[in-house]
């Protein structure tokens, strides 16, 4: 177990180093400023101590006063170097984090939605935000700080050796001892860091669940039960952080003991040299001050090392996402279908959501001609939505192939494939921004006139202009300020604005009242006009106007044909649809 932990933590830090390379000039500037800051601090303190010693030894006032301007310059330069070091180091760190977040989000795009089958959204959000933010410690306070500690310590040792060669020899063993303290408990730190981050992620994930499911929690009067669960998770997090804090305290105690012992050793050596006549008395405060300052950068990096457990755990979680294998490859370079060649072919397609799980689709073959509308019909769980997922290449088929205009989807660039398709989903996601920006998701560069034209065609324009701020009205988190029908019509406006040749409708009319369904049906008729359309629906009113129905049962096609023909045949479709016909 310890070997695995060593490998994981070391690998995480090694993988972080390449992110520093594009910013090596900035990092070098930060290291230079940090080194100069520490050396100026040591020089200023040493000069001050020298003047005190000189005064104690009976030095003349003129000899002391002439050094005061130099001392003032050293203090001023030290302040400037400290500011420069902090500014440059954090500027570089935040630039790296900006690139890091962008790369991480691109990695998420490649692995979702498959990745979320085994990971909670709150856990993924923690990797995207909290864990990435924690890596700022490494980029701003660890990589450069380590080099500063080494350089500053080496120069200070040379300065200390100028006073007497014995003093650096006394100091060096204590430097190595201080550097080693975080390594003694590193395995324990890695374990505790992983445990603390895991408890924090679990707490965050449940909190996100509680916010997203707040209506259900209130409706079922489950507030107390949910709070009890959060309290248990909070207690578990507190326990893990307390254990982590105890180890931090133990490391801090060792660091203080060793640094104090080092100072006593230097003081003892200096006193011996003075008594033996090998060193003048006025060098005593200088030696003590320089020894104290030589440990400052060493203690700083050792203190950073105490948090390596958390940083290693965060790096491990972030790279688990970055290194995750993409659900589909994006290496296609085939020419796209030309003109109106947007016919869709499913040819002997079989697919399952895991190697150990049964096929959801088995030997499915059907076609959608260019400009034709085809509805996938059947009970829940028979593979209708899976067909849509495969058509958008969220997953790849395991057997068979899917083509558009005769071109295999796997041979098309993903961006180009998805430019061919627009979707009106069952659960419309509206971002917490203006209605205008939500509609422009279909075409970000669209003008205001284009957006309003799409909204009119979707029968949502009158509703929008009736709002206090019109198109600038905030849609609210997940569109909670709007009804289901209004959100669906905004989705139709998005699709109209995108103007893609292939349309996917996934239960777009489910759970709507009569008036909203009528308005949405009107807008969908406009949307379907001239487009190759694939519809998934349970309601007869949604798919009866389709040119062709593909009836699925247990992952296989059992019937195909128009509604008017299939309803007259003695078959599965008739049995499936008769209850709706009777109710209607």
UniProtKB/TrEMBL annotation:
The keyword rRNA-binding does not apply. This is Putative multidrug export ATP-binding/permease protein. It is a multi-pass membrane protein. Its EC number is 3.6.3.-. Residues 344-579 form the ABC transporter domain. GO terms for cellular component: plasma membrane. The lineage of its organism: Bacteria, Bacillati, Bacillota, Negativicutes, Selenomonadales. Pfam families: ABC_membrane, ABC_tran. InterPro entries: AAA+_ATPase, ABC1_TM_dom, ABC1_TM_sf, ABC_transporter-like_ATP-bd, ABC_transporter-like_CS, P-loop_NTPase, Type_1_exporter.
